[in-house]
User: Fold these one by one.
Assistant:
Number 1:
Amino acid sequence: SLWPTPSLAIKSCYVKVYTLKDEQQWVILGTGYISSTYEEGAQAMFLLVRSKSDDSLILESKINPDMYYEKDGTLIFWFEAENRGTAIHFQDTAICHKVWKAICQVHSKAPCVEMIHDLMDESEAKEGDDSPKTSELPDLPNCELGKLGEIVDLVTLGLTSPVDKEILALLLEREDYIQKLLQLFHTCENLEYTEGLYHLHEIIKGILFLDNTSLFEILFSGECIMDVVGCLEYDPALAQPKRHREFLTQNANFREVIPITDSEIRQKIHQTYRVQYIHDILLPTPSKFQDNILSNLTSFIFFNKVELVNMLQEDDEYLAEVFAQMRDKTTDDDKRRDLVFFLKEFCVFSHLLHSESKCALFTTLTELGILPALKIVMGMDDLQIRSAATDILADLVKYTPFIVQRFMMDEAQQSEDGKLFTNLIIEKMICDTDPELGGAVHLMRLLRALLDPDSMLPTHRKCKRSEFLNFFYRHCIHNFTAPLLSATSEDICEEDNTVGSDKNNKNCFNNYQTAELLALILELLTFCVQRHTYYIKTYILRKDLLRRVLILLNSKHTFLVLCALRFMRRMIGLKDELCNFYMIEGNLFKPVVNALLDNGTQYNMLNSAIIELFEYIREENITSLVAHIVEEFYETLESIEYVQTFKGLKIKYEEQKYRNNQLWKNLYPVQYSKIFCRGASVLKHKEEKSFKENIEEGKAGMSSSESDFQDHYDKSVETEKAKENEDKVDLPPKTSLGGSEVTSFHSASEASGAGNPNDSSMVDLVDFSDDNKEDKEGDPPPRKKLHLKHLNPNLSHVNL
């Protein structure tokens, strides 16, 4: 092999490694030192980047001769797949160029030892001797008015291949060639030399499409960028040139909400805005087949924005002053609007950061006091300000939800006026004046993100999962459900019977905007049923909320009716017997059955939703609900035969009934045997106790011989009792009661025929509350109760 086996690291230069994610965003993998190694087995050269902190491997990439590599200034990047790429940003331009030479050499399939030594040793041959071989290109003509046509042809030729683009970029970097071209632009404008201006437009546009980062540094410098914009004004396809420079200098005024004292930040802001303007306005929009044609220009803008965010984040005093002025009551609305818009744009730029960097940034913003400032602007009536503040808060909730939750909980303990931030969000959602409720939808999603248990870190020492839910259900949910409870109150429902079709009646759920709001509320409540089982179940039972929700089935808006059904369906999906009992006792399936019957034979979403609800109960065999539906509504639903759902429910009901009857038959004799054995023991104990008491009463008048006799008798009784305890208790005989065997027991007094029916020794053993009713199959119904009287207070009845 021609590759040397040893590998050396370039310790004098470190690089940053980026990767392209599916979201089309470049994310930094780490910073470290670059090195190379040749693997004999793979017969290939690999680039390695190891962390400068712990020497861990950040990147190991094979230089693949079949892969397309690109170089822009100090950036080398390549794409492994359509939406997956890697980029290496070099600190040193010379090292970057040598690595690029190595990649080009691999692509030419002519590796040599000298090339590898050039990569590893900075003191090797001069950069000009290592220039990649390219197609023959003439030297650049002198920058003269008469040569502009030749320069246009040369630039056009240089765009034909990646290698030619690389050589042309190197030639343009020499001897301030671009600066000389821009000086010719001023000459042409002063002379009103239109043809020359058209040539310069083509030249500058061609240079931009070289997509070279080193050339961008020249073109977008403070001295050149406005001249570049000027050249692009003179498009030959336009009858009159566009006045872009006038717009950028006069119309697009740079407004400093807080004076920026750092000149570097100011310059970076100006540059970023103007480069973005060139990219979006002056250059033609690439087709879907040319998405990467200006990838380096996009990266240039991206890194500028990232650098701006980092520079502003490091300036704590500047951001603290922004939040202080937002909180200041003396700040006028115009000033506060500018502050909010600045903060929103800052947050938009922050989306370009890596996920961990975004979390760190928003944590810093909360520490500097952004949340109290947002609470003030969220309470303003200006829709634009409130919308921008909502966007900022949404970013905070997305990346640092537990910090926002902690702030809201602390408010409940510290707020003097009782106005909580959460309730303010709910209020603005309910009072949204937009007919389409665009702001309310945004706020509802924000609340949903806050209430998502996944956003509540269970191990976080400051915010446990249950803590925020306790806070919300104690302080906020009554405000959230207030419109629902108001729209379904008895007064409104009675009024709806007379004026329900009045679209201007905002308290009526037939009003479109009110129905939209109620649908949003139900959407979030349905989410709560799914994720907050205990808390929302308690609230539903306490407020009888499902009954109120089912009133909405009478709405003329199908989307609202479906939301109400979805809420009930989610409750059934819990398979919670307490919720099932609540629905059975409240007869809450009746409105659903009525809605199905009112829908008639229409095959629509309402019909499908109701059928699916009953089908779920059948498939999951929720026995309590199956029994309730069949017993209460089967006769009504029996005629629906286009689906087998209700017949299936009847079959499930009959199967369960049969199982219950069989169980009742098997348990009946066993239970009664235990009960009567216990009853016999109790009565015998009472008789013995009574007998002994009678003997004790006669002891006082006995003679000594009688006393001796009594002592002898007592001993014999005790001996007999001990003997009886050793023997098995003989059960009394069984008699038949209603076709079933029942064990009966009669006291001694009853056997002699001297018993009083009201005497305590009489035993009324069985009392069925429904003796005269028999089941159709002749078996005892499973739900009957067996009442045992006069035996023992603890055996008053037994449920079978």
Number 2:
Amino acid sequence: KKKERKKEGREGGREGRKENSEGGLYVCMNTFLAFGREHVERHFRKTGQSVYMHLKRHVREKVRGASGGALPKRRNSKIFLDLDTDDDLNSDDYEYEDEAKLVIFPDHYEIALPNIEELPALVTIACDAVLSSKSPYRKQDPDTWENELPVSKYANNLTQLDNGVRIPPSGWKCARCDLRENLWLNLTDGSVLCGKWFFDSSGGNGHALEHYRDMGYPLAVKLGTITPDGADVYSFQEEEAVLDPHLAKHLAHFGIDMLHMHGTENGLQDNEIKPRVSEWEVIQESGMKLKPMYGPGYTGLKNLGNSCYLSSVMQAVFSIPEFQRAYVGNLPRIFDYSPLDPTQDFNTQMTKLGHGLLSGQYSKPPVKSELIEQVMKEEHKPQHNGISPRMFKAFVSKSHPEFSSNRQQDAQEFFLHLVNLVERNRIGSENPSDVFRFLVEERIQCCQTRKVRYTERVDYLMQLPVAMEAATNKDELIAYELTRREAEVNRRPLPELVRAKIPLSACLQAFSEPENVDDFWSSALQAKSAGVKTSRFASFPEYLVVQIKKFTFGLDWVPKKFDVSIDMPDLLDINHLRARGLQPGEEELPDISPPIVIPDDSKDRLMNQLIDPSDIDESSVMQLAEMGFPLEACRKAVYFTGNMGAEVAFNWIIVHMEEPDFAEPLTMPGYGGAASAGASVFGAAGLDNQPPEEIVAIITSMGFQRNQAIQALRATNHSLERALDWIFSHPEFEEDGDFVIEMENNGNANIISEAKPEGPRVKDGPGTYELFAFISHMGTSTMSGHYICHIKKEGRWVIYNDHKVCASERPPKDLGYMYFYRRIPS
């Protein structure tokens, strides 16, 4: 039976664009979802849809001329699919031919396309619409698909001042601040100034743009991108990236010879003067002959444009057996029970990605041909070099303004975001994210009465502070800083970098040190007092994730990063951080909640601000965003401080920036009118009020029962923090029969177990661990730079740098940002 439905507007089924993979791609002409050859039969059995369009791209070596070279290029009318050519093949040596036909299941009856004579008009129209449709990602990532830059109208007659400015080959710094990255050379007066952080995902304070507004000089080139082939040129007047046909002459005016400039893959200058100890070179193991690795578990992920944070986290996560079993091990069952639109199902997309990484199908050593038959047919089957996680990224970042953008993100924030998604889409009784979960015991002591309170909270990673004051090479650091400043003043090459060496023991000591509790209210005094807090492990996880807190702020509040070396060991013992609970002689603080007091003069303003989020002061939001903070965090800061200005909102950010949901989108608990907003904010919610669903979801994602979360929120006036305290302090809580546990509308709902564990699920054990993976960051901010991952497999370290997977020769374990340890059984 042939489908005659006109589907001109649907593009979702063409996602993946795997027409040139072995077997091609089958597009369902009813749903317009696309499937590989190994999965189309499953879709047919599940849905009964019988009509598919089979798309395939053939790759052949070009016919050689008499002189041995390829014949002259000509327009290839045999290519009609919107598909990029294979990057691994030289387009001068190979030619492509696209093939399309209709296939009728289950008999696999084929109808060649086009076939106007035999097919009904509506079927022909639908086929033409599919064949001419553009990839949906060309709309999502317009910058990634830019074909050709326009020539600037200012290039031919650009004025260049004869002011004697000469640009050195290194040691660049913004003329108005201390930034050394994202620097732009104005081609009129030779000024070196920083750009905006959101222009190309690099940090900056916008001084290059300010200079243009002051002086009107239109063109600037980005330092570090200059090569003999060109450079990144931006026109402030035209407000876009442009081409400068006379760039070599314009650069020579300032003493820059394009023919002797070499840019690295990451856009940084790589010349003889640059020290060979920069973190970019050390972390990527530059200059070493790294042996490529192929096969199952050695598949890379192509960079979609600042997606390396996602790639690094997913490589580390799928090296864990529990995640491999939960998704790839359950592939047939997950695919069989996936919803009709599997692109919108988390477990299906996780399984698809995991299978791609672990199967080895997309990581094969390069060979010219595999079978003699292929040679006889003059057909070449290109080897796969990594996979493109477009569909996975589109789903997991859906509705998240930061992760859905093309900007660089924090790998630690994405890791917690992923854990949250795994928790919310649990399959069966086993939850793979349980291996990361542990309990933290927090001990708060009133400094005046010496009374204490013990509470527990759930966490998924250990945040380890950098103890800069404990550097073991302080004399070398002081000497290096003096030499560096002198070189800058005299415009000489910078000295070889000296990196602070920090003992891990000092960082662990800093983690266990008491810290002051801001705005502490003592229930013993019934008043505010000084308080201190210490944290210990109430349980040790099966897999310990350690984040080094390298990112901070300078005196000018510009985000910066500690470029330090920490001696992270292969074997880690943190048993001494085990919580001990209430000790003999300690007296507990009374279980009394502080009174809620809100000044009358600000009550109305706060009410109004929380009722209508559309009134958020966007100018304050942008001021904060330009400092490098995530956009959603800036919106929340301005919202929750009642539009009282960027300075007040900045203080809110500093207090809340370590929270797991810091960059999550703004949600309004209790929003829906003045009455509900007032109840939520001022604690006036009665027991008959339903708690905000957003807060209920947060608590249930930690492993607690839904009815338990609702009861705790009702008992604490919908306060998330106090509700968690209530849950831990009421272990005798019994399940109320009046509550109904609601099942989310999940595609795999029929294989989700109804049995839910009591309390947070933890896998406690000894606190001795072995390092098996670490993620490293290069750059000055989480909003810029590059991530790569090292994983220990089969007894040796392997480096995963986007799509490139190689055996590591010198893994930089001392420069990591996130470390993954597995427990050593006792």
Number 3:
Amino acid sequence: MAQPLVKKDDDRDEEADYSPFLGIEKGAVLQEARVFNDPQLDARRCSQVEATEVFFAVTKLFQSRDIGLRRMVYLMIKEISPSADEVIIVTSSLMKDMNSRTDMYRANAIRVLCRITDGTLLTQIERYLKQAIVDKNPVVASAALVSGIHLLQTNPEIVKRWSNEVQEAVQSRAALVQFHALALLHQIRQNDRLAVSKLVTSLTKGTVRSPLAQCLLIRYTSQVIRESGVNSQTGDRPFYDYLEGCLRHKAEMVIFEAAKAITELSNVSTRELTPAITVLQLFLSSSKPVAMTHPMAVTNCNIDMESLISDQNRSIATLAITTLLKTGNESSVDRLMKQITNFMSDIADEFKIVVVEAIRSLCLKFPLKYRSLMNFLSSILREEGGFEYKKAIVDSIVILIRDIPDAKESGLLHLCEFIEDCEFTYLSTQILHFLGNEGPKTSDPSKYIRYIYNRVILENATVRASAVSTLAKFGAVVDSLKPRVFVLLRRCLFDNDDEVRDRATLYLNTLGDGSVSETDKYVKEFLFGSLDIPLTNIETSLKNYVQNPTEEPFDISSVPKDVKSQPLAEKKAPGKKQTGLGAPPPAPTSAADAYERLLSAIPEFASFGKLFKSSAPVELTEAETEYAVNVVKHIFDRHVVFQYNCTNTIPEQLLENVTVIVDASEAEEFSEVDPSTGEAEDDGVEDEYQLEDFEVAAADYILKVGVSNFKNAWESMDPGTERIDEYGLGPRESLTEAVNAVINLLGMQPCEGTEVVPNNSRSHTCLLSGVYIGNVKVLVRLSFGIDGTKEVAMKLAVRSEDENVSDAIHEIVASG
């Protein structure tokens, strides 16, 4: 950078208004800045002023008495984060400022010292920091407290010694000091539940004056309430009276924080909720409205909330309209739809998605109003919008079609009109797939053919291929349409995309000769059935078939239906090689293939037939033991094979003649190995080693196999095989725990994301699918409910290809 052309005079050292930029010539600076435009940059020349040079230059400004400039000095030193050697240079100046008569110097010196110092120096200035915490000046006290909050992450033992001073600062009359002191005191005690409870108990008696500190205390109180639960004898919550008292505080932020805390209590009752809803209702009509929703509990607020739909704050307007949609009654639906129509054009896509989801919930709540709600969804579907917004609308229409039978035909037509001008390939293919499944079941399937074939003519290759599959589904189900579908599929044989041509050729050969005749059952299963084999397994099996030519045709039934992420799925000690059955074959393509190859290579197991399932390894020893043993359960149709994998973790020992005795101890013979020569000694030592027990559970006989469309798969099963019963699961912490317990018990694959239970949900439906031993497909529909005492009830419905298997699933649950 250009050097000053004028040197600072000695007699100006004490002038407070001296500028560090005095004497710098603008032209010289611009001239030197041209180096940044050179074709060959000189990195060293461009970075002449390094952080160290800046640091030393800045430290000279400690002589300045200008308050603004001094604040810039503190800021610069804190941001540069000097090295340990450089810190020593400014430490004395900062410690001098800590004892200055100027409060601004003291506060900033504390902040900077705590930022750049280490544990050794911290012990030297600890006395000053303790004094600063109880200083009469709130700026200095807050600076020390905030520094303590930061230091607690790096030097917790030192900060914890300040508890008495921090406790005294909590009683300060300064709002920010009390706020920072309470935050620091809670962090010091946060790992001690009893200490936190005592802190909340002492402070809820009215010693906190700062609204900010009061909000913090409300949050800490809510935490204690959640951990304490409800008093089993009186039914009261601890500290609830304090939260209710905060609803009458003079500060609005405290009132809102208390109302929020009450509404977020677990299993909150109507009596406890009423005071919070009352103050929130007052907020809705105030000049500073706050919108907050609690479905069905805020019905009394609807009149006040309707005025918020036109609020200039679009966030508040969105929350108001979604709350009205969730809490309104059937008679108010039409009026709300008229108000929303003008409202939608003024908000962003993320708010529109919230409104669409609320409309979907309202339609499911009042099915008779599906016409007006469906028309509204179709109208906004034709407007401008991004992918997520359009996807939310399409998903809503699809859900309404599935759950409200009367809405099927109008909903399908709305979707057909949308794909005529849809710019999103994903949405077009999803709609075409859904149309292929639902369209042939309508009263007049022929009216959808035009929309589908338009996609073959006008769209890209991905959408065209999807349209070909949809046409084939119509031809397979509706016999009268088969000749017309054949004509359209033949035209697709001349498409310029190979995927479209291949699909057309496949469907022309599977649908028959094109005459008006009933389609074979296996063709319908091929078109509408779900693929119950992982694509990874199909790919692997096809590669193996190509690499090992044979005269036999490829048999898809030979493809394993189970896949594991780890080859052999076995845990091995680092650097140790397994032997025997535990050793993997060269480059196994999947766990199922690897196990099947291992077992088929052993003559005793060759006659057992095809392997149905192999379990994940079950550890039979502790992780720290000298021998690591696990077992893999291989399930055949009529046999069960236990594969024990034993790993030696002691280099000086060599395991020999390892045998396993079921229902007894494991006998081993190992030899001592000389570490220097690596040769085994002649005399071995015989030893017995106890293993943990394990069991063959019901889940071992069920294979996890998902279905892409559970509803279609369920309807395709024979209703005569359905078995329904109800079970009590006893007290549970939550519905999530109950759902996971049943899924683990049955060992089946959750479908459509139904294993996830929404927060605070009192009921839930979970869908499971799998294959029972003997290749019998099984579908399970679980309906859970939980009451106020956390007792969980479950309704279990099972359909399968064999009614005996349906009975077996119920027996598993009943005995589990």
